[in-house]
Amino acid sequence: MKYLVLIVGIAFMLASCGKSGSLVVKSPDKNVELSFKLVDDKPVYSVQFKGKDVVLPSAMGFELKDKNPLLGNFEIAGSRTSTFDETWEQVWGEKQFIRNHYTELAVYLQEKDGEQRQMNIVFRVFDGGVGFRYEIPEQENLSDFVIMDEVTEFTMAGDHNAWWIEPYQHDRYEYLYTKTPISEMDTVHTPLTMKTNNGLYITLHEAALVDFASYTVASLGNNRLKTDLVPWSDGTKVKTGAPMKSPWRTIHVADKPGDLITNYMVLNLNEPMKYDDISYIKPNKYMGIWWALHIGKHTFWEGPIHGATTENSKYYIDFASKHGIPLLLIEGWNPGWTEEWYLDAMHEFDFTRSVDGFDLTEVVNYGKERGVKLIGYHETGSNLINYLNQIDEGMALYRDHGINDIKIGQVGSKMNMKEWHHGQFGVNYYAYVLNKAHEHQLAVNFHEPIKPTGLRRTYPNLMTAEGARGMEYNAWSEGNPPNHETIIPFTRLLAGPMDFTPGIFDVMIKYREGRRVHTTVAKQLSLYVIIHSPTQMLADLPEHYDGHPAFKFLLDVPVDWYDTKVLNAEIGEYITMVRRDRNSEEWFLGSLTNEEPREFTVSLSFLDEGRKYRAEIYADGDDADWDINPTPVKITQMDVDNNTQLDIKLAAGGGQAIRFYPL
Description:
Elements: E1 3-11, E2 16-17, E3 23-26, E4 32-39, E5 42-49, E6 52-59, E7 62-64, E8 74-89, E9 97-111, E10 118-126, E11 129-136, E12 144-150, E13 153-156, E14 161-164, E15 178-181, E16 187-188, E17 192-195, E18 201-207, E19 215-221, E20 224-229, E21 238-241, E22 244-245, E23 248-254, H1 257-261, H2 265-268, E24 284-288, H3 290-295, H4 310-322, E25 327-329, H5 360-369, E26 373-379, H6 384-400, E27 405-409, H7 424-439, E28 443-447, E29 462-465, H8 473-476, H9 484-487, H10 521-530, E30 535-537, H11 542-545, H12 551-556, E31 561-570, E32 574-581, E33 587-593, E34 598-603, E35 613-620, E36 633-640, E37 645-650, E38 655-662
Parallel strand pairs: 24-25, 24-30, 25-26, 26-27, 27-28, 28-29
Antiparallel strand pairs: 1-8, 2-3, 3-4, 4-5, 5-6, 6-13, 7-12, 8-9, 9-10, 10-11, 11-22, 11-23, 12-21, 13-20, 14-15, 14-17, 16-19, 17-18, 18-23, 19-20, 31-32, 32-33, 33-38, 34-37, 35-36, 35-38
């Protein structure tokens, strides 16, 4: 990793005090202001952005099991302010070089009497928001303890509109988003994004979630929101001890929704990379028999139309090799798959043997000869007792076959039918598996994951994850409505990369009567720019790509980026983004809309000045419509430069994708 700039300034003194006696610090650009004070000996913070209230004075602290709470009886024993400025390089990502620039306020609290326990709160104030965490230092009167509740509040300045999904449901994060005022919310997942009446966009999330429960957001009424830690099965929240550092609680704020996307505070609040050898980590595109399994052309389990056969694998390898697609995912190759594999029943899979009809060594060698490597797959069924008993042998099998990528699924409402995926148990499980994968030189794609919190900076083999409703819901449910892809860039995708599995050209799904994909084909192309993932699936069947002129865009579009910009956006309505390839001087544009057709003009000022570019445009056909005519794609070319004003026309439920390459 390259650290290009490092400027650190530290002042061991009290932060500036406002008229109310608050400790006040501002972001480097002075737009974000954080205030901290004690009210009746209790810690309280507030946040403003450009003079507008973002978070009104809000409570902080913890309730503990069988101990006095860490909520009040405090005095400020000291404080420290500092500034930090660096530019660091991502191993892979949506932007190669990221600036990490903030002002920090550390407040040292101690109880005034009694046990005189200590609790520190550290705030980092960025140009686009605030992150803060609790630190419990090692001390005589507080060693091991159990957190029963975190009382951190976010008191909003109004009854903002919010996009949200409920936690504590069978399918974890895999639900459609609801838009309501926060007064109509109950408890919801993060990232939670809100739009205020005075033109601000606010997102609540967290960073560096390690050995802690993830938090959901509970609504207390009167615009008061509060952390709600996901519990263990015994009702406790976090089992820990001093010294302890909580995850960072993050508050993102912007004038424009697109600025939420290009805010890298969550990444910056994570630790630098901890791995030495990362030579096996390679962003790339892949194919798989995955979509055929969901639409019913093939089955996960053995039978007359079993998908994971040697013959079928070779068919996919031949197609991938012909088109230079380097990776192939095969699911269902190992014993344990049945028609009821997805039920909560502590289902048992075998991770070292192949089923009849599939020869792993033969398929691997066939792929090697043709330049196609396999992606391994471990489906645990959330029976982690069974999985962890076999994890070393299962991962070693892949390593011995030269496989460096793995998808790991945790289908099931609870882990071991007992613990939430997003509680402390799940958080620690995913961390263990990720580090185990690194030992075996495997880059990981988690399905049924814990939400991303920026840990990919520290552990870059955490490539991508599911954690939302993806493409498969179109195959066997009512499907994702056309506005779904206009919401997730401002909610789930603010957390990190997603394995959404786009690229379906047969949007009417000929193998599954009564089911369909609710987009145009051109919108499927645009998703490769809009939805960031360093491992992107070309999800449709080879027969639907073969000979299709729009398939060229899927072959051309990269997965690893030098820069990202949002040209226009409105949550739930539309979004237009451009990204520049990390390994060339090409730019790619993606634009998509909800159920409404749209026309707008965008500036190409992001292109290099003084250079001509060829634009390869993949647009909705003139009469395209997601509902009645979703397949037409109009492909044209034109020469442009950074002075060009480009007209974009989107069909209802449609999209547009453009490749710009220098002439």
